[in-house]
Amino acid sequence: MRAVVRVYVVRVSPNDSEPTTRHEPRTTDHEPRTTDIPASDTLSEAAPVSDLYANAAARPTESSGQSPVFLARDITKVYNMGEVAVHALRGISLDLFEAEFLVLLGPSGSGKSTLLNILGGLDVPTSGTVTYRGQSLTSADERALTMYRRKHVGFVFQFYNLIPSLTARENVALVTDIVDRPMAPAEALKLVKLGDRLDHFPSQLSGGEQQRVAIARAVAKRPDVLLCDEPTGALDIATGILVLEAIQRVNRELGTTTAVITHNAAVAGMADRVVSLSDGRILSERRNEKKLAPSELTW
Ligand code: ADP
Fold first, then answer.
1. Rounded Cα–Cα distance for residues 292 and 299 (Å)
2. Mean per-residue pLDDT, 145-150
3. Does CATH number 3.40.50.300 belong to domain 40-296?
4. Which protein residue's CA is at the shortest distance from atom 25 of ligand 1?
5. What residue owns the CA closest to ligand 1's atom 12?
6. Per-domain residue ranges for the chain?
């Protein structure tokens, strides 16, 4: 029987001590043996990284009590599409702090999703390093990244990806079944103000309600970080505000470190910090002295 196994080749760069991992799918003629696959479920400690804040005003202060969750340094991502190399990220350095609400702003194609996917362990950079609470994501193998995503990261995407044949409560329960300390599905749905829609199927819910089920599903496992990719992209303004309120409540009430991608500049008003991307680079970074409530946003 032919089976495809992934072989992990760890190489150490001659210039530093940071190991990097290449994932090379290979075709073999035997069943995968346990020795083919490294058994690491955890991330490894990363080397210390330098402070990136040349702009002192953008640096979260000691008095704010924040400590870093992510440290990303000099991240590049190149997609090789045959003859053409697409430079999605061209050297991004970014920190994300405990309980922070970060908005990543930029036009379509500026690299926002690529960056979010790298922070969420869905993708790996071509070069650069990313640490999550001092542990390296960039030298982690796929199994460790899977465990990292499962335990620590909640994702919300533009399209809700709910299972049509399951109720709101059952869609959330799918996730709570595979983690250690989940919230009850009904509790998660109450948090997004859907306590009265527990037994509705997706087809019986509006787009905004479906997105709030998706948020409940993401937060029911009590993730450390919530990563949202254009969560209001498919919604009208009024519905989008309800979805943003749900995300804000998670950030405030659970203290979940939150990053929201948007091309809609109005959303930036509700962030602690706004990072604008353009053509794979950070164009600007600012902190909001006064944060707006989602209902105060206009677009
Ligand atoms: P944004 O989220 O800001 O719209 P993306 O991160 O999705 O930007 O994309 C940045 C660039 O990388 C775009 O030019 C896009 O076409 C390209 N890109 C993204 N993902 C892939 C992929 N899997 N393969 C090839 N090119 C990609």
1. 13
2. 94
3. yes
4. 79
5. 88
6. 1-38, 40-296
